[in-house]
Specification:
Elements: H1 2-24, H2 36-42, E1 50-54, E2 57-65, E3 72-81, H3 90-93, E4 94-98, E5 103-104, E6 108-110, E7 117-125, E8 133-138, E9 146-151
Antiparallel strand pairs: 1-2, 2-3, 3-7, 4-5, 4-8, 6-7, 8-9
Protein name: DUF4352 domain-containing protein
Organism: Candidatus Nomurabacteria bacterium RIFCSPLOWO2_01_FULL_39_17
Transmembrane segments: 5-23
Length: 153
């Protein structure tokens, strides 16, 4: 009889424990409050990550900062392969093109040179006036020209 009571109590404790865990939910997160004026001055825009898979090389690019308030525009670039050496000078093989066709050379590549897996940040001067779109062209990575286009809102 005592064994049955212990088993029943064990099951009840287990069920109550599950119930408490299930209904307590995750802790509330504190979300920073941004007032309307601050949103208007930041002109924050999320930028889409673009991927190009050609010639045994995958290139993934995400603009980090293309805001009018920034003096430089930054693009996070990741390259992966198992068959091609990724030793290109990114300041020589990349160019930013505005919607009028004008080309802009990068200021700097902040990342490693060489290997089969590379990631870094490509930095350009801000384009003024802000164009309707920008195209980042990368040539000679796997002997092809890669094109990535973003539209400004």
């Amino acid at each position: 009889m005592t064994k049955i009571i212990i088993r029943i109590l064990s099951v009840v404790v287990f069920v109550v424990g599950i119930f408490v865990l299930y209904f307590s939910g995750p802790a509330k997160q504190v979300v920073p409050v941004v007032d309307k004026a601050e949103k208007q001055t930041n002109n924050f825009q999320q930028w889409e990550t673009k991927t190009d898979e050609q010639a045994s090389v995958t290139v993934v690019i995400t603009p980090l900062d293309l805001s009018p308030q920034s003096a430089v525009w930054k693009f996070d670039i990741g390259m992966n392969t198992h068959s091609v050496e990724l030793d290109q000078d990114m300041t020589e093989v990349a160019v930013l093109v505005d919607d009028q066709g004008k080309e802009y050379r990068p200021l700097n590549w902040d990342g490693p040179i060489g290997g089969h897996h590379r990631e870094g940040v490509l930095i350009f001067n801000q384009i003024t006036p802000i164009p309707k779109s920008v195209e980042l062209k990368i040539s000679d990575v796997g002997s092809v020209i890669r094109s990535f286009i973003w539209q400004f809102k």
